[in-house]
Design a protein that fits this description.
Blueprint lengths: L9 H16 L5 H4 L61 H107 L11 H60 L23 H107 L11 H63 L5 H4 L3
InterPro entries: Tektin-like, Tektins
Main location: cytoplasm
Pfam families: Tektin (PF03148)
Length: 489
């Protein structure tokens, strides 16, 4: 996995190693004096016969015709030994032994520096090897951490994808329920308008049939039930709207978190696949900073779990709301159908009762007409009888009036006189009785005419009621929506 050792320049290492071998292969000049060999050291190094401080074979006086200066070096000046005077005719400053000692010092210093360089090279090589090994191990560990973190992000991403898919499905189901409630509210106006229109039609009934019967009571109950169900569905519709907002908010939050995790997963995947030979490696100043708004793994897991919990809570509330809506539909449709059945049964009974009453009124009208005809015949008979009795009265009165014209003793109260007077009296009583019966018959005729008018009016009222309840009302009730339409399907 690690590419750090591969980034090290192997050709440079081999060149350095070869150069080091060549340097080590060269003999150190000082080995002549420290080996077992008793060979005399080179002339440029200190010799055994050298004494310190050295003695010169031909001492040169500091004052002479060859030198115009004076001794400037002394033991007190920090330099041991005598130094000849150097003037413009000579450059001599050191003795041969000092020159050889100086050469020895140079070789010793060079040997120390070379040794130090070799030690430093060994240490540097060990350090580089250790650093590369440590960096390699650290890089492997970091890569494993990145892989582990990428797996964690991928795990949460998959959970969020499932949650988003579930919420999207729930939103579609709830949207279908919302449209269903809208259709139900629209369809529910039909039975409400049917009941209102039927009540308005029944208000056109005439006079005595304007009663608050069972049909009107059931229609009023149906209107109240439709209004109650409509209000309940409206409140449920508002709850669905609020639940839709909650679901969309939870879905948006989950999608935002999912989008962040997709971005993070891609970044971590790129980081895992990066190596030391990747062409996009650059120096990034400030990359090791810790932003103030960074989360920690605990808060990270808590945040994602909270998003998932909110999504699940919103989903469960939506499921519960849909279940409640199904219960509302089941109960409401049953109540509406039961009430519609009650209205139809009451209407059918009322139509049947009205038809029976109409039939009886028509029969009664026939009887009334028949009796009115008989009464009219009776009146004609009584009038004929009155006319006959009037003629007999006129006859008797004429006879009596003629007999009043008798003269003298002939004007006698004889038996015929008393008989005629009795006849006139009796006929008067009979005529009065017949006239009384005629008057009573005429009064009965008047009452029968009124009764006929009343019966005819009631028949008209009942026919109007039947027309409203049967021909128009029952036809109107046939437009009552079915259970499927009331359920919003």
């Amino acid at each position: 996995m690690s590419d750090i050792p591969n980034g090290h320049d192997c050709s440079a290492d081999s060149t350095q190693h070869t150069l080091q071998q060549q340097i080590e292969a060269q003999p150190c000049p000082m080995k002549h004096e420290c080996g077992d060999n008793a060979e005399k050291p080179p002339l440029y190094l200190p010799q055994p016969e050298d004494e310190y401080p050295p003695k010169f074979e031909h001492a040169m006086e500091p004052i002479g015709p060859w030198a115009t200066g004076k001794v400037t070096c002394s033991r007190e000046g920090g330099i041991t030994g005598l130094r000849p005077v150097a003037d413009r005719y000579s450059i001599t400053r050191y003795a041969p032994s000092e020159w050889r000692a100086h050469n020895l010092n140079i070789f010793q210093q060079s040997d120390e520096r070379i040794y130090d360089a070799q030690v430093a090279a060994d240490r540097a090589k060990q350090c580089v090897d250790q650093v590369y090994m440590t960096a390699d191990k650290m890089q492997l560990e970091t890569t494993e951490h990145l892989k582990t973190r990428a797996n964690v992000v991928y795990h949460w991403k998959i959970k969020l994808e499932h949650a988003i898919a579930a919420i999207a499905e729930e939103i579609e189901l709830l949207e279908a329920e919302r449209r269903r409630v809208q259709r139900s509210l629209s369809i529910l106006t039909i039975p409400l308008s049917i009941a209102n229109e039927f009540l308005q039609l029944r208000s056109l009934r005439l006079n005595s049939d304007l009663v608050r019967d069972n049909v009107e009571e059931q229609l009023t109950k149906e209107i109240a039930l439709c209004t109650e169900i409509r209000d309940l569905l409206r409140r449920t519709y508002e709850q669905i709207e609020m639940q839709m907002v909650e679901l969309k908010s939870a879905k948006s939050r989950a999608e935002n978190d999912w989008s962040d995790k997709i971005h993070t997963y891609n970044l971590d995947s790129v980081c895992v696949n990066l190596s030391n030979d990747s062409p996009l490696l650059l120096w990034k100043a400030g990359a090791t900073r810790f932003p103030a708004d960074q989360s920690i793994p605990t808060s990270y897991d808590h945040f994602t779990q909270e998003v998932l919990t909110d999504s699940e809570t919103a989903k469960q509330r939506s499921i519960k709301l849909r279940s409640t809506l199904n219960d509302i539909y089941t109960k409401s449709i049953k109540d509406l159908c039961d009430q519609a059945t009650c209205v139809d049964v009451a209407l059918a009974n009322n139509v049947e009762f009205t038809q029976d009453c109409l039939q009886q009124l028509e029969n009664e009208l026939l009887r009334c007409l028949h009796e009115l005809a008989n009464t009219e015949k009776l009146i004609e008979t009584l009038r004929s009888s009155t006319k006959g009795l009037s003629n007999g009265m006129k006859l008797a009165q004429t006879r009596l009036d003629n007999r009043l014209n008798r003269f003298n003793v002939e004007s006698c109260r004889d038996e015929p006189q008393f008989a005629l007077v009795e006849e006139v009296k009796l006929l008067g009583e009979h005529i009065s009785a017949v006239l009384a019966e005629l008057k009573r018959a005429e009064e009965v005729q008047t009452e029968l005419v009124k009764a006929r008018g009343t019966l005819e009016h009631e028949i008209m009222v009942k026919r109007k009621t039947l027309h409203i309840d049967k021909e128009r009302g029952q036809l109107l009730r046939t437009f009552f929506p079915s259970n499927t339409k009331l359920a919003g399907f």
